[in-house]
Amino acid sequence: MLNAIDKQVLKEVAGLEGIPKGAYNIRKNGKLLGREVSANITIETNEKGDGIIIDIKPGTVNESVHIPVILSQAGLHDTVHNTFIVGEGSDVTIIAGCGIHCGGKESEGHSGIHEFQIKAGAKVKYVEKHIAIGEGTGRRILNPTTKVFMAENAQVEMELTQLGGVDEARRFNEAKIGAGSVLLITERVMTDGNQMAESRNEIELAGTDSKTNIVSRSVIKGNSSQDFYVNLTASARCYGHIECDAIIMDNGRNQTVPALRALHPDAELTHEASIGKIANDQLMKLMSLGLDYDAAVNRIIQGFLR
Amino acid sequence: MLELKNISFRTPESDDGAQSPSGRTIIHDLSFTFESGVFCAITGPNGSGKTTLAKLIMGINELTSGKIIFNGSDISKLAIHERSNVGIVYGFQHPARFKGTTFRDLLSIAAGTDDEEKLAKIISRVGVCSLAFLDKRVDSKLSGGEIKKIELATVIAKNPKVAIYDEPDTGIDLWTIGPMVELLKREQKENKTTTIVVSHNKAFLEAADTLLLIRDGKIGYSGDLAGAVPILEDLSVCAFNELCHGEVNAQCYR
Ligand SMILES: Nc1ncnc2c1ncn2[C@@H]1O[C@H](COP(=O)(O)OP(=O)(O)O)[C@@H](O)[C@H]1O
Ligand SMILES: [Mg+2]
C-alpha cells in the first residue's frame, strides 16, 4: 500500500515506520489511503466530502491520532477541512503534518484547515511537521490554518515545525481561549534559498484566568524571508506572553510584529522579540570547546530550533 | 609549558571614535612562562587586562604582536578550536547564554561523547553541580552562580592540559568556594593540569603555587603570595576600588 516515497515522507513528517498504531487517517494526493479508528476515536469523512471529522470521546486518555498527508502528484493543489472534537477530560496526542515530494517542474501545494473544538478539561498535544523533498523544481507550497476553540480548563500544546524544503508557506493560527484554559504554541521555521514563510496569529484570551505562551523560533538562511505576526488580545483577567527570536544568516530577511491588546484592566501581557545574527559569545564558547566555526553554528541552530 | 613572548594587544581602530582614534593598547609587551602543571593565580585591579590576556591565550583576541609558544610549538596563529584541541581551554568570566542549548549539549561537545554514563561521571568528578543540571537550558534564566558552575564543568569535561578560569567564584555561594578550590587542586594533581585562575579571592590566591599581578596591562609582580601581600594591600584589590580609590576610611562594601 505504501511505496518508498510514501514511507520516506511518513517517516519525516510523523516519525512513522510504516502504518501507525491506534487511530489514523492517511491522505495521499487528495484521496484516502488508509484509515483506522479506535473504540474511543472515530474518523469520518465530512458532509461536503472535503475533509474528515475526528471525534474523540470524553474521557479518552493516552491515545493518539495520526493524520499525515502525502503529496507527490505534480500540479496538484489539495485543500482539506478537518474538524477535531476533543471530548471533556480527554488527554490525547494528535500528530498531523504534510510531506510534499516534488519530482517535476509543476508546483504542488496543500492547504490544511484544522478546526479544534476542545471541550472542558481536555488536554491535547498537537504536533504538526511540514517538509518538502524531491529533486523536482516545482514550487512546494504549504498553507496551514488552525482554528482552536477552547472551553474551560483545557490545555492545548501545539508544536508547529517546518524545517526545510518548503518554498512558500502562509500560516494562519486563530485561537479563543476559555476560562482557566492554557494554550502553548511553539513554531519553528527554517528557510533557505528563495523560500518565504509567513505566519499570522490571532489569539484571544477570552476567559478569566486563561493563559497563553506563544514562542516563535526562526532561522533564515540564503535569500529567504520570514514574517511573523501575532495579535494577542485579552478580554478578561489573564496572562499572555509572546517570545519571538529570529536568527538571520546570509541575506535572510525578517519581520517580527508582536501586538498586545488589553481590553480588560486585569490583563497581563508581555512580549520579547529579537532579530539578529548568531551571537558571537555563543560561537566563541563552542569553539573554545573544540568545534570549528561551521560545527559551532550548526549546534547553536540545532539547540535554537529544538 | 606555555610561553608568552612579548605579547601586546591593541584594540581595533576607531572603535570608540574620538577618544582613541588609533586604538588603545590593553596588554603591553608582556612576557611570562607558565610551567607545566603549575597552579597560577592571576590578580589585579578591574580593567587591568586579565580577561584580555586570557582571551589572547585562547585565541579569542588576536595578538597585535608577540608570540605564544605551547610545548615548543607556536600557536599564535591557531584558531580558537585548534587551540582547544591542542589542550587549552578558557572558562569565560561572563559565560554565553544560549537559547535552547542545554548543559548536556555543552558537556557532550566538551567530552566528545553523549554517553549518559560518561557525562554522569564527569558531573560527579566536578562535584559542584548536580546531575539534575544536565537538562537545564543554558539560557538567561540561570542564576549567575549556576552558569558559572556549568562553565567550570565544561572546561573540566574537555580534559585540558591548560585550564584558564576567569573569576570562577563570581556569584558562587560561600560554601561552594572551598570545594571549588579543592576541585581545581585535585585536577592539577591528578591530571597534571596547568591551572590558571583569574581571581581576587583569597582562597584561590592561597591555593596557587605562584601569583601573577597584572597592572595596566603589564606584570606588576610575579612570585609567591607572601611577596605579593604588601603590593596587594597597597592596591587594596577590590571590586569597588574605583569608587573609593583605596581610601583608608572609605566605607567598603565588602
Ligand atoms: N575589544 C575591546 N575593545 C575595546 N576595549 C577593550 C576590549 N577588550 C577589553 N577592553 C578594555 O580593556 C581593558 C581591560 O579589560 P579586561 O581585560 O576585561 O580587564 P580585567 O579582566 O582585568 O578586569 C578595559 O578597560 C576594557 O574596557
Ligand atoms: Mg575580567
Under CATH, the homologous superfamily of the domain at 36-51 and 85-238 in chain B reads P-loop containing nucleotide triphosphate hydrolases
- Main β sheet profile of chain B: 6 strands, mixed
The value of Rg of chain A in angstroms is: 20 Å
Main β sheet profile of chain A: 11 strands, mixed
Low-confidence stretches of chain A: none
* Element string of chain A (H = helix, E = strand): HEEEEEEEEEEEEEEEEEEEEEHH
Can you write the helix and strand succession of chain B as a string?
EEEHEEHEHHHEHEHEEHH
CATH fold type of the domain at 36-51 and 85-238 in chain B: Rossmann fold
Radius of gyration of chain B (CA) equals 18 Å
The percent range for strand residues of chain A is over 45%
Helix content of chain A: 10-25%
Can you give the mean pLDDT of chain B?
90
Work out the helix count of chain B. 9
Oligomer description:
heterodimer
CATH C-level class of the domain at 36-51 and 85-238 in chain B is Alpha Beta
**Using DSSP, what is the number of strands of chain B?**
10
Which ligands occur here? adenosine-5'-diphosphate, magnesium ion
